[in-house]
Structure formats: structure tokens, C-alpha cells
From TrEMBL:
One of its GO terms (biological process) is purine nucleobase biosynthetic process. Belongs to the GARS family. It comes from the Bacteria. This is phosphoribosylamine--glycine ligase. Residues 106-305 form the ATP-grasp domain. Its EC number is 6.3.4.13. Pathway: Purine metabolism; IMP biosynthesis via de novo pathway; N(1)-(5-phospho-D-ribosyl)glycinamide from 5-phospho-alpha-D-ribose 1-diphosphate: step 2/2. It comes from Opacimonas viscosa.
Length: 413
């Protein structure tokens, strides 16, 4: 099987290597102008200067399936031509709106009996004030349309006063999505959906705040996470929050990964978002946990093929931790190209914003790399992950030293 990945950084590096180790041939089309070093260490990686689009690359090097890092691929002018050339491990069309449009996802989910927090789309500041006067409280502020280039990234407000303080500072260009604040008890579940049929894979927790103790701002991507094999839906997240979507999934011929993230409050799970792709943190871990990851892709390529997940016995739990560089998460603060030293390169270390020169690896941004470790239980997975970080050093960098010590299992503080 030959696979095209569209993306950059640690997600693409990790996915390329884990898929290669499973027996696939992998090439990458680098969709952004940074974080090229990691993917280029393990497989052919091409820039838009070499191939102006992935369609041009596919005409030169045909592949069997494409896996995207971001849903933005579907809005590109070459998207239809790409879909005509090969299957995509991500839904398209109306099915992709489940992630793309938060208000649409809530409308569909609520129509099928799934619980969501109260929400409102404000087109301007006056809309927002009117809503908050009618329904005062704390709200999480998001862009209505989900995209890595959104003018607003998630702002968590824990009081009404916090919420009001942001109204003059946010960009209403695409509409602002106000979602009722539901506390700290968050968890996720990822399933594989093949033409509407749902197969549970894992449950997970992402640590989205910048600093240990779940303190600081919500970062642009998680600083770490826990992933647990969960084909039997131990916590009921799939049963409550994904399975009720079945009629809509079948209607839209939804095919690809589907992640739900939800909050637990008053003995009830409420959906805060759906994602229609492999998570940046979870993707490489899922491929390592499966004995047969290529079978999941084969089921997308061949409608007659039935995917039955087989899990690796000694990788029941996975842990991911991000090494962040100088200034993170405040992107306006930048530092020099500090050297990164790694004494054991045999582990799952996935490079993000780094570069290489004259045998050195150098910091080239704020999120430097991710490390993944595994175990038969949580304690072992956490220990193995931090043991990898002990082999890495970079001046003025940091990582959260508490991944897995809170918010797990699902429903816990």
C-alpha cells in the first residue's frame, strides 16, 4: 500500500514512520511552510515549490489513499481533483461539516438526542451582549468555523466577567461561537466510521493548558495526552455521543475517523466538538497500538473489506508529551536556534518546529517535538514516556511533568 500524507511536523513525521513500520510505502506533500524536517527524515517529502499541488504529485507518483493532517485540504481548489484520483481517510462534503461548522454539528446532534451545552453564534458585539444579558454565565469562546487559520482560537472563560472582558478583543468576521462553560471534566473517544458503520478504537484525554497543574492559557495544540485502547467503549462515550449519529452517518456516507470531545457535568456527558480526522496527538499512537493499522485504510479503499481492529497487547495505554521551546505559548516571544540534543533516537520522537544543519538539530519555533511511550497500564506508559524525555535536552525549553496525573480516567478532575 502506498500512502500520501498531507501535512507537516510531528503528526506527519509520526504517522509516516508508524505506517512505514506497518509495511506501507509513504510520501508526504508538505502543506505549510514550516516543520518540514521531521517528515523528511523518514520518507520522500515534497514542497509546493516542487509540486504545486498534491494532485500534481499524484500524477507523478500514484498512491492508494491520502491521509490529511487538517480538514483544510477540503477547501483547496484541487480538492475535487484529488478525490477523483484516490480515496481519502477523512470525510468530505456534508459529512465534513460535523467538524467544520460547530453550529451545524450541534443542530444535527441535538436532533438525534445528543446533549450539548447551551450555545449561540454572535455576528457582532451587540449580538454577544444581548445573548449574555438573556443568558448570563461563563462561556467558552470559539470561532464558528473550525480551521487552523481561524481568527479565534479557543478561549475558556470561567466567569461571566471573564466572558464580557473578551467582547472588545475578538474577531467577529466568521461569527463567534459562545459555548456554555461546563467545568474541567473532559474526555474524548475516537471511532472508525466506514460508510456509516461505527467501530470504537480508543478513549483519550488531551492536556490543553500550557502549564502543569492545568494552568495557563489554552495552547494552540495539546501539551500532552493519554490514549487508551477502548474497542468495547468502556466509558460509554461512543454509545452516548457517536452511535446516535448513525442515521446521519449513513445518509452522508461518512467514512474516516470520528472523534468526540465531551464534558462531564451533573452525571451527564455533553458534546463540545466533533473532529473528522486523526488527532494531531492521537494519530501516531493509534497506529502503534493496532496490529493491523493498514487494514483500517484498506477498508476505505475497498468497500467490501471488513476492518476488525487487533490491538497490541503491551500497548494498552499510550502517553504523549510535547517539548515546548522558548516563549511558548506566547508566539510573539521568539528565541535563538537552540541546539537540541538527543542521546537515544530509537524511540518514538516526532519532530515539529526544528531544523537540521551540519549534524545538529536546532529549535526553529515554539513546539519542538513530541514523544510517545506505551505500557500495559497508565503508570508504565507515563514512566516510559518521561524516560524518553530524560534523553533530550534543549536550553529554555519545557514540558508538562504531570500528564496523566489528573483528568483521567474520563469523568475525573
Amino acid at each position: 500500500m502506498k500512502i500520501l500524507l498531507i501535512g507537516v511536523g510531528a503528526f506527519t513525521h509520526g504517522l509516516a514512520k508508524t505506517l512505514q513500520d506497518a509495511g506501507a510505502e509513504v510520501i508526504v506533500w508538505l502543506s505549510r511552510d514550516y516543520a518540514h524536517f521531521g517528515p523528511a527524515q523518514v520518507c520522500p517529502a515534497y514542497t509546493p515549490q516542487e509540486f504545486v499541488s498534491p494532485v500534481e504529485l499524484l500524477n507523478n507518483q500514484p498512491c492508494d489513499i491520502m491521509i490529511p493532517m487538517s480538514i483544510d485540504w477540503a477547501t483547496q481548489p484541487w480538492a475535487d481533483a484529488l478525490c477523483a484520483l484516490l480515496p481519502v481517510f477523512c470525510p468530505n462534503g456534508e459529512a465534513l461539516q460535523l467538524e467544520r461548522d460547530r453550529a451545524y454539528a450541534q443542530q444535527i446532534g441535538e436532533s438525534l438526542g445528543i446533549h450539548f451545552p447551551r450555545s449561540f453564534v454572535a455576528n457582532n458585539r451587540l449580538d454577544a451582549l444581548a445573548f449574555l444579558e438573556e443568558f448570563p454565565g461563563a462561556y467558552v469562546i470559539k470561532n464558528t468555523l473550525c480551521s487552523p487559520t481561524s481568527p479565534i482560537h479557543t478561549i475558556v472563560c470561567e466567569t461571566l466577567e471573564d466572558t464580557l472582558s473578551w467582547l472588545d478583543r475578538i474577531d467577529y468576521a466568521e461569527g463567534v461561537f459562545f459555548q456554555e462553560y461546563m467545568g474541567h471534566k473532559e474526555a474524548g473517544h475516537i471511532a472508525f466510521v466506514n460508510r456509516g458503520q461505527v467501530t470504537s478504537l480508543i478513549s483519550n484525554q488531551e492536556y490543553k493548558r500550557a502549564f502543569a497543574g492545568n494552568m495557563g492559557k489554552i495552547a494552540g495544540a495539546p501539551l500532552g495526552g493519554i490514549v487508551a485502547q477502548d474497542p468495547n467503549d468502556e466509558y460509554g462515550l461512543c454509545e452516548r455521543l457517536i452511535a446516535p449519529l448513525q442515521p446521519w452517518l449513513e445518509q452522508t456516507k461518512y467514512t474516516g475517523p470520528l472523534q468526540v470531545t465531551a464534558m462531564y457535568q451533573n452525571d451527564e456527558w455533553s458534546v463540545i466538538e466533533y473532529n473528522a480526522r486523526l488527532g494531531v496527538m492521537c494519530g501516531p499512537i493509534i497506529m502503534r497500538m493496532l496490529e493491523n493499522p493498514l487494514d483500517m485504510l484498506r477498508a476505505v479503499i475497498d468497500p467490501e473489506f471488513a476492518f476488525v481492529p487487533k490491538f497490541v497487547a503491551d500497548k494498552k495505554l499510550g502517553c504523549s508529551v510535547t517539548l515546548a521551546g522558548y516563549g511558548y505559548p506566547f508566539l510573539e516571544v521568539t528565541g535563538p536556534a537552540f541546539p537540541i540534543k538527543i542521546s537515544d533516537t530509537s524511540k518514538d520522537i516526532w519532530f515539529n518546529e526544528v531544523t537540521g544543519t551540519e549534524g545538529q538539530i536546532l529549535a526553529d519555533g515554539h513546539r519542538l517535538l513530541d514523544v510517545n511511550g506505551y505500557g500495559q497500564n497508565l503508570t508504565e506508559a507515563i514512566h516510559n514516556t518521561y524516560a524518553i524525555l530524560d534523553t533530550i535536552s534543549c536550553s529554555n525549553s519545557y514540558y508538562r511533568n504531570d500528564i496523566g496525573l489528573s483528568l483521567w480516567p474520563p469523568g475525573n478532575d
